[in-house]
Amino acid sequence: MVVNQAKLAKLKQLSAKNKTTKVGGKRITKKSTQSAAQTTTDKIVDAMKGHNSSLIPRIAEINFFCADGNIIHFESTLIQKPTVIQSESNCITAIPNAKYEYKTITDLVPGIIRQVGIQNTEYLQKATEYLQKKLRQVNLDIDNDKDGIPVIEEGKTF
After folding, report:
1. Are 104 and 66 within 8 A, CB to CB?
2. Please, which domain of life does this record's source organism belong to (predicted)?
3. Is 0.70 surpassed by the pTM of this model?
4. pLDDT winner (highest mean) among 1-10, 45-54, 93-102, 145-154
5. What is the tens place of the pLDDT at every residue in 69-79?
6. DSSP of the chain, one letter per residue?
7. Arch. (CATH architecture) of 39-103
8. Which sequence spans correspond to the domains of the chain?
């Protein structure tokens, strides 16, 4: 194979001068273009439209009451409700679109009283008593199950 010495010398000179210049020319990296980013809320709304859902307005927060007595509190959330009822009960799908915090009932009482009203505080008292009773029951169950061995009762099968 015959190599043209003039071309070879020229290519060696170019490669010595600039390390980014290659035999075939400069390497050009493709710059990624960023499209207009939708907000997370818009993406969720678009995804839920495919599931026959519509937005329920005026829901500012969600509170999930856990068995251990804590409350998972979401603010400025997005709630979707199916437009087609698939069962006898009205199914609500909660899609929290916000950061959550673990809170106690005492942290949330001022906001709950504003929502429920002062005249309905007896219902709040009953709910608090019920939650405290459930918490005590869960704590007792945890204390009884500390050894990790389940209690087997006679006459019951698995």
Report:
1. no
2. Eukaryota
3. no
4. 1-10
5. 778 887 766 66
6. ----HHHHHHHHHHHHH-TTEETTEE--PPPPPPP-PPPHHHHHHHHHHTTTEEEPPS--EEEEE-TTS-EEEEES-EEEEESS--SSS---EEE--S-EEEE-HHHHHHHHHHHH-GGGHHHHHHHHHHHHHHHHHHHHHHHHTTT-PPPPPTT---
7. Single Sheet (2.20)
8. 39-103, 106-143
